[in-house]
TrEMBL record:
<feature type="repeat" description="TPR">
    <location>
        <begin position="70"/>
        <end position="103"/>
    </location>
</feature>
<keyword id="KW-0802">TPR repeat</keyword>
<dbReference type="Pfam" id="PF13181">
    <property type="entry name" value="TPR_8"/>
</dbReference>
<dbReference type="InterPro" id="IPR011990">
    <property type="entry name" value="TPR-like_helical_dom_sf"/>
</dbReference>
<dbReference type="InterPro" id="IPR019734">
    <property type="entry name" value="TPR_rpt"/>
</dbReference>
<protein>
    <submittedName>
        <fullName>Tetratricopeptide TPR_2</fullName>
    </submittedName>
</protein>
Amino acid sequence: MMASTVLFVRNLQQGWAMLAWFALFGLLIVLSSVLSVPAEERKAGRAFRRGDYAAAADLYRALVEKRPLARNYAFLGAALGASGRLEESVEASTEAINRDPEYGLAYYNRALVLRQLRKKSRARKDLERALEADLPRRFRSAVRGQLEELR
C-alpha cells in the first residue's frame, strides 16, 4: 500500500504532503507492530521488564497452554530462571529447543541457568549453539562475553 501511493504523493509537489505521508505510514507501521503481538504476551513482557518474574512466569505458562510456541516456552524459561526456579527454567527452555532447534534465544536462556547450576560444560555448548542458531543481534555480544568467561 505504501509503495503504491508514493508516486502519487511525490507528484503533488507540496512538502507537507510528503511529511504527512511519512507520518501516516510511520504510524501504521508502529501500530501493526504493536498489534501483531497478542495482548497476553505484551502483559507478560511488561511483568518481566518490571521485575515481577513470578507473575511473568504465570502469564507465560498460560500462554504456552494456549499457544505452545518455542518463543513462549523460551520466555517462560527466562521468567522461571529469573524467579529462581532453575530446574523448571531448564525444562521450559529445553521444550523451546525441542519445538524449534534453531531458536537461539532458548539456548542462551538455558545456558544462563546452567551456569547458575554450575554445569559449565553444558552451558558452553548451549552458548556455542546459540551463536550458530537464529539469535537476535543484540544477544550475540552477550553470548560471546559469556563464552569468554567460561574459557
